[in-house]
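Re: the multi-chain job from yesterday

Posting the exact lines I submitted so nobody has to dig through the queue logs.
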Amino acid sequence: MLMSLTIRKMIAITIAAALAGCGGDDANYEIATGKRLAVENFGYSLVVPKGLHYCPAASGGNVHGYVIYGARAGQCKGGSTEDKYISLWADFNVLKLPGEKIFSRNCKGYGKNEFPNEGNFSEDQKRAIIDIKGELCGKFHGNVVEITTFLGLDSKSKKYYYLGNSEIPDRFIVVRLSTFRESIVEDAKKLNSILESVRYN
Amino acid sequence: MGLCSKADGWADCDITSVAQIQKMANMYGGSSIGTIIVDWKPNAGAVGEGGHDGPPIVVTAEKPEKKICVGEPYNTFFQKNYGPAAQGANKIGLNPMLPLGLAAYESGYGTSPMARNQNNPFGATPGGDRSSGVTYGSTSAAWGRWYQEWGPRVNDVGSNAGAFVYRLTQDNQSGKYPFDMRGPYNTQDAATGGNPTWSIDVLNVITGTANRFKNWSESGC
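And the result, structure tokens for all chains:
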């Protein structure tokens, strides 16, 4: 469970005053109620599992998605940096290159099928990683496991899909899971639950 | 880390993806991206295999042989945004392509709901953390607000795209630098709601925007 968070570092990063069109309020995280959360400017919504804490993921006040924690002592705009989180960050694809058909933002590290073959992961842990939705990639260092996967949002078809070797959509979501070896199984389930909840508005 | 300023010769700027930016410049039609400076750090040693040890590289414009119509959504984006972007930029000695590229990144070249319906090309939200964006009376008003908020931070970067994004990503709540008391535009840390690739993404879009603007402005389309 994400409640067993280990705080790696306490750094006072506050993004409040950085946000365009706003002052420097100190919003607390919110606790998910199971209601659907909209990311209006990028045309999608998602459901954060009930009880988890979340904060907006923003750039200059433009909300691109959410970062989701189990429990959190700090505030969204000035709290702790956690080792364990799930973040969803949407971007418009503003780099459409002529002739490019394949989504090229592959992360470096272990591919989905290579990933569990090192690092003494148990069979359950390997299965949990393989079962994460999408064309993911992952890496681990020490006890920390980082997984990245992608969703495409296509405004013409009004559909979303997991990105692999597919046509480049006009917007996409980068989804990141950072967790620990011992909690990868349960956190992978949470990640899949969130991925399955994504809807194109 | 210093201020990353012109006065310091940009010596404390630290963007390490120069080669990638150069590659993007090449992808967008040779070196024709105007006068955006893509590397400014002496002794960076990062451009191509030979490294770079010298003055900043200025990627200069090359006039395309054929006029290229940029089409939509770029036509509308430039029509709506270039004027107010340039008006504000001229006041602070900033190349308008830099904030224009940022607006292109944040709005998908003006295709975002907030850009289309609320004259809000930066996706600014009330309080900075609400999904419903600010509705401006005009696109010019949105740009005026952006310059009011962020102009002091970038008022001496000229055409230096690296310094532009570097300045925006600084956490200045302590008032370390003289320009404002704001946090970073983007923390670049997913754990705190940022995007780890924000700087390189914005730099890439600035490059593409500059090239598209050049084609748009010369095409008469």
